[in-house]
């Protein structure tokens, strides 16, 4: 059973709060303060706060690749062919599907990295 949390009030100047928010870098202030007080030697808790994109260049590359891939159209065509029973199972078709799956996996990894979600728990 999880221990209930109890609120604590803290008064500070506008400048102090602004610095705290900058230092928290997207974490909730409560999580940031608790981490700094009780576990400063541990890595900061993972958060998806106000600044979720860690690498804008990687995100732009992933989105450009996704836009150029015609992925949704191709997957829709494959699904339609499977549903109608007209998808020939030839070596080149299998290779195309494997390449598409690899492209999807690479895009996923790029997006996870860009969103700073590729860290181990």
Topology record:
Elements: H1 14-24, H2 29-38, H3 56-68, H4 71-84, H5 91-114
Helix pairs in contact: 3-5
Q: Could you explain how this protein is built, in words?
A:
With 121 residues, this protein is mostly helical. The longest helix is centred in the last third of the chain and has 24 residues, at 91-114. Helix 3 runs antiparallel to helix 5. The protein contains 5 helices and no strands. It is elongated. It folds into 2 domains: 10-51, no CATH class; 56-114.
Short recap of the structure:
By secondary structure, this protein is mainly alpha-helical. The protein is 60% helix and 0% strand. α3 runs antiparallel to α5 (91-114).
The residue ranges in which pLDDT falls below 50 over 5 or more consecutive positions are: none
How many individual domains? Answer: 2
| Order of H and E elements | HHHHH
Distance between the termini: 21 Å
Percentage of β-strand residues: under 5%
Question: DSSP helix count?
Answer: 5
Largest sheet: none
* Helix-strand makeup class: mainly alpha
Count of beta strands: 0
Helix proportion of residues, in percent? 55-70%
Shape: elongated
The average pLDDT is: 77
Q: Please tell me how large the radius of gyration is.
A: 23 Å
Task: List descriptors.
mainly alpha; single chain; elongated; 0% strand
């Amino acid at each position: 059973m999880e221990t209930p949390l109890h609120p604590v009030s803290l008064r500070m100047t506008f400048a102090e709060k602004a610095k705290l928010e900058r230092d928290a870098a997207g974490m909730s202030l409560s999580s940031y303060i608790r981490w700094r007080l009780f576990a400063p030697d541990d890595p900061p808790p993972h958060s998806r706060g106000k600044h979720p994109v860690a690498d804008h260049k990687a995100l732009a590359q992933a989105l450009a690749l996704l836009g150029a891939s015609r992925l949704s159209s191709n997957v829709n065509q494959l699904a339609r062919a499977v549903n109608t029973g007209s998808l020939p199972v030839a070596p080149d078709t299998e290779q195309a599907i494997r390449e598409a799956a690899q492209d999807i996996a690479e895009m996923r990894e790029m997006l996870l990295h860009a969103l700073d979600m590729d860290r181990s728990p």
